[in-house]
Amino acid sequence: QVQLVESGGGLVQAGGSLRLSCAASGRTFSNYGMGWFRQAPGKEREFVAAINWNGANTDYARSVKGRFTISRDNAKNTVYLQMSSLKPEDTAVYYCGASEYTIVVVNTNQYNYWGQGTQVTVSS
């Protein structure tokens, strides 16, 4: 089992920045590809960003490319999502996921473990 705990969400004005963190425990962190997803009210969970086991490869949703950066620190068992130039449409609950595939994984159904989520609200 892998336990994931997100933190760093909050309320920010449009154009601002936030850094989300996801701390993992339970299994060897570097055995997992990691990803960030988000879910707005009334919408399905959607892919935001993903990173492979050693951080060498990443992928982003088109809507966040150039504004968000995913990274990981395997020594700290933590994955991060740096969000800049935030927009009101970025408002959602952000979830961290761990996949037993060590590569970059963008499909929700290929993630094995999820955190509880952290709320990000961007005001206009």
Keywords:
7-stranded mixed β-sheet, mainly beta, single chain, 0% helix, 4-stranded antiparallel β-sheet, globular, 124 residues
Characterization of this structure:
The chain is mainly beta. It is about 0% helix and about 50% strand. It contains no helices and eleven strands. The chain has strands at about 5, 10-15, 20-25, 35-40, 45-50, 60, 70-75, 80-85, 90-100, 115, 120-124. Strands 2, 4, 5, 6, 9, 10 and 11 form a seven-stranded mixed β-sheet that branches. Strands 1-3-8-7 form a four-stranded antiparallel β-sheet, with no helix packed on it. The protein is globular.
Short description:
With 124 residues, the chain is mainly β. The chain has strands at residues 3-7, 10-13, 18-25, 33-39, 46-51, 58-60, 68-73, 78-83, 92-99, 113-114, 118-123.
Biggest beta sheet summary: 7 strands, mixed
- Backbone CA Rg: 13 Å
Question: What is the 3D shape?
Answer: globular
SSE string, helices as H and strands as E: EEEEEEEEEEE
The number of distinct β-strands equals: 11
Secondary structure tally, helices: 0
Q: What's the quaternary structure here? A: single chain
Identify low-pLDDT runs: none
Class inferred from helices and paired strands: mainly beta
- What fraction strand? over 45%
Separation of the first and last Cα atoms? 40 Å
The whole-number mean of residue pLDDT values reads 97
Helix content, binned percent? under 10%
Topology:
Layout: E1 3-7, E2 10-13, E3 18-25, E4 33-39, E5 46-51, E6 58-60, E7 68-73, E8 78-83, E9 92-99, E10 113-114, E11 118-123
Parallel strand pairs: 2-11
Antiparallel strand pairs: 1-3, 3-8, 4-5, 4-9, 5-6, 7-8, 9-10, 9-11
